[in-house]
Amino acid sequence: MTDRYAVLGNPIDHSKSPLIHGMFAKATGQGIVYEKILVPEGGFTQIAETFRAAGGKGLNITAPCKLDAFAYADTTSPSAQMAGAVNALRFGAGGVEGENFDGVGLVRDITVNLGQAITGKRVLLLGAGGAARGALLPFMAQRPASLHIANRTPARAEELARIGSAHGTISAGGYDTIAAGAYDLVVNATSASLTGALPPISADAFTHATLAYELAYGKGLTPFLRLARQARPALAAADGVGMLAEQAAEAFAWWRGVRPDTAEVIAAITIPLN
Ligand code: NAP
pTM here? Predict the structure, then answer.
């Protein structure tokens, strides 16, 4: 029987995961079936269990089910524990394993696809939700010169800095702690762009930046990216489409034992930033 995988979330119609994994499967010669499944409120565990009982091999998990998936997994990886969230599940002899590939996907997109080093650079991370939490350890593993986390609710940023402080220099606070011209990479891990909002950051944060990275994807030039480009036209601007493809490639490799190339997928799902 062909191995079955799926992505679970709500809403789910917009999900690019079936397209991405279909392209990966074709390119690597892996015979899989990949579906998308809508999860009604409170229905995550039952849907995941039914899928597993029917022989399903693994799941991708998107909003708002990542915390439910974390609770559902028998075992979780350090990256999932750090994020407090699971974005991929694998079903096997070892039970239900939970992983979180968002952070590693983000770092790989920045360093490999966009060719921007994190090592030795001054990083400003906006937001302290699940995506920022997941990015923390993969970022610190790159040994940036410094990492400053700014969040609308400063206490959440401060908590994150405390957790990550064993891994390097991390500072944190509200948006009023962002220093002018003090960052090489500025990463928007807030969900502000999903509603067309701009986090309260001023243009001078970008004065010396070489990259403005928006985790949201498929939104074109978001207010954050627009501000960054206006402030410093020479910087590279990117949205999270490469991160999406890279976290998917990590999950595919975890499930199938072969890591697909992402270039073709990124080209297929990129929406121009204009
Ligand atoms: P989350 O856990 O809900 O956290 C949301 C974060 O955004 C919090 O830090 C929140 O601040 C902040 N925020 C929300 N609205 C804001 C506003 N108007 N101004 C300033 N800050 C605001 O969300 P998440 O799961 O971390 O997702 C964050 C973003 O990453 C989303 O855009 C999501 O689509 C994107 N994402 C992309 C990928 C990918 O593969 N490309 C993967 C995962 C996530 P408070 O703490 O003060 O509430």
Answer: 0.96
Atom of ligand 1 nearest to the CA of 242: 41
- The neighbouring-strand residues paired with 170 are 147
pLDDT digits 0-9 by tens, 145-161: 999 999 999 999 999 99
Q: Which pLDDT tens digit goes with each residue over 201-258?
A: 999 999 999 999 999 999 999 999 999 999 999 999 999 999 999 999 999 999 999 9
Whole-number Å distance between alpha carbons of 45 and 69? 8
Q: Residue 239: name the closest of 199, 195, 273 by CA.
A: 273
Do 3-100+245-269 and 103-239 agree at the fold level? yes
Place of tokens 């708002």: 64
Please give the backbone phi and psi of residue 133, each rounded to the nearest 5 degrees, phi first. Answer: -60, -45
Query: For a substitution probing ligand 1, which of 68, 186, 191 has the most ligand atoms within 8 Å of its CB?
Result: 191
**β-strand partners of 34:** 5
- For the domain 3-100+245-269, what is the CATH superfamily, name and number? Leucine Dehydrogenase, chain A, domain 1 (3.40.50.10860)
Beta bridge partner(s), residue 33: 4
* CA distance linking residue 44 with residue 62, whole number of Å: 11
- Check if 219 is active-site: no
- The continuous run of DSSP H or E covering 238 comes out as strand 236-238
